[in-house]
Structures are given as C-alpha cells and as structure tokens.
Amino acid sequence: HLAPGVDVGAMARGIAGPTTWPKVMLYCVATCAAALFVRMLFGLIGGARAPAQPRAEADVGYHEARLLAGIALLMAYGYAIPAIGFAWSTAAFMVAWMALGGLRRPVAILLTSAIGTAALLYLFVKVSLMPLDRGKGVFEQATVALYRVLGIY
Questions:
Q1: What pTM, to 2 d.p., does this model score?
Q2: Looking at the predicted structure, is the pLDDT value of residue 57 above 70?
C-alpha cells in the first residue's frame, strides 16, 4: 500500500527501490507455499504414513510464562522503534529474544545481534532504500553515526 501521489520510480536506484523488499518477500512466501503444497501432494500420492502422535506437554518444553514474555517483548520492540530507532531497538530485541530463548553465551548473543542488525540495516536502508525510523534526540544522532560507520550514509 502506497500513499497517493508517491513516485516510487523516482526513488529507485537501478533495480532496487522502496517496493523491492516487500515484493521479493511476497514472492518468497508464495514459493515456499508452493513447495509445501507439492511436498504434501507427493506425500498423499505416495501414501505417506499417519503423522506421529503429539508428545505430552511436559516433553515439548512449553512454558506459558516464556510465551507471554515473548509477546510482551514483541510489543515492546514495536513501541521502541519510533522512540529509539530501528537499529538500536532491533539490536536490543535480538539480545533479549535470544536470552529468552535460552541462549546463555554472551559472545554469541552479542555477535549475532550486531551482525544481524548490520545485515538488516544494509538490506533495508542501503539496498532497498527504505527510510527506517532513526529514533528521536540522541538516538537519532547515534543512528546517523552508526550509518556512517557502516558506510550506509
């Protein structure tokens, strides 16, 4: 959905523009859905065996408190993006999400968060030319500094 009067063609550099990322993701979702459909179809034709019985709840490791914490974390991430910017909120979200998921190796958490956030910034800001929230006040200045260090600006 684009606002009326937005000239997306003028914003594009080469083949990439602000609508490139959403279109590519929709094509990827459609491709995955088609692959799953074909896999299920071959399973039906080949006489796939009945699905295994679900394991008991204790075996699955399901924790309702962790589920609620994950939902709260996602909501906090959505609210944090306009205030502290996409870069800083994404890095913090990734750290918190991995810690919530049970990963306890600080170096792995920090490296994954830093590399993952940098990759997303390059993809969205540099390649897809999407104007992401930079935050307000000191966070906006920190985001611009980060973009300069990464060579995005």
A1: 0.65
A2: no
